[in-house]
Amino acid sequence: MGLWTRIKRSMRALFGGIIESTEDPELILQQTIRDMRDRIPDLNNSVAQVMATEKLLAKNKERLESQVVDLDSKIKASVKMGRDDIATAYIGQLQQAQLDLQRTGHQLEHAQLASKQALKARDNYMLQMQRRTAEAMQLINQSKQAKLQEQLAQTMASFQIGDDASTFDEMRDKIDRRAAAAEARMQLGTTSVDNQMQEIEKEAMDMQLQDKLLAYKREMGLLPAGTETGAPQALPAQGETTPQQ
To answer: Model confidence over 141-179: pLDDT tens digits?
Structure first.
């Protein structure tokens, strides 16, 4: 293999790869659809020209047919009047008109066939364009779906579940430590000296209320004679026990 051939092959591979990487299937398909639609006016114009030729030949045929009939009448009238010279002239014109009519008839047949073929080609093109358009729209939707899947795949590839899992574990440990500390402080608060003093004060208040109640009953004579209220005894200190009687 020659050097120049190898260079051309390398250049084609290089630029081919660059062009392929820059091609957007959606844009190319959309442009293809627009190109097909843009060709419709030219196609219709071509069909219209073929049909116009057919109509023109048809009118020429009708004119020649009328001319043949008219010349035939003139020939008969000339012969009837004894004007053979005029009849002969009309016969020459009639022969030429008949030749023109025959030639125009053949041309009209070809034009009619060409019109049918042009209309059929136009209809086939419209059907093909509709089919291609539907296929292109389906391919465009598939391309969009593929792009979404690629973006989702890239997102999932960049998503590291381990990082978030470690964050959850760290936050869980932090919350557990805070909850344990709060529970410990609450427990210390319920067993503090202030709470014990509040309990003692409440007990003393209850004893005073009982003494007041007994005093009211004694004053109202509701207690039997000799019933005395004992002096309130001090509560044992913490860690001490009540002496045995």
So the answer is: 887 787 777 777 776 666 555 556 666 677 778 888 888
pTM of the model: 0.47
Q: Which CATH number fits domain 19-147: 1.10.1740, 1.10.10, 3.40.1010, 1.10.287?
A: 1.10.287
Structure tokens at 155: 């997102």
Map out the domains of the chain as residue ranges.
Answer: 19-147
Contact predicate 189/195, CB 8 Å: yes
If you write DSSP's letter for every residue of 180-241 in order, what string do you get?
A: HHHHHHHHHHHTSHHHHHHHHHHHHHHHHHHHHHHHHHHHTT-S-TT--PPPPPPPPPTT--
Helices (H) and strands (E) in the chain, counts: 5, 0
Q: How far apart are CA 182 and CA 178, in angstroms?
A: 6
Residue 130: closest CA among 242, 50, 39, 37: 37
**Residue entry with tokens 């006016």:** 41
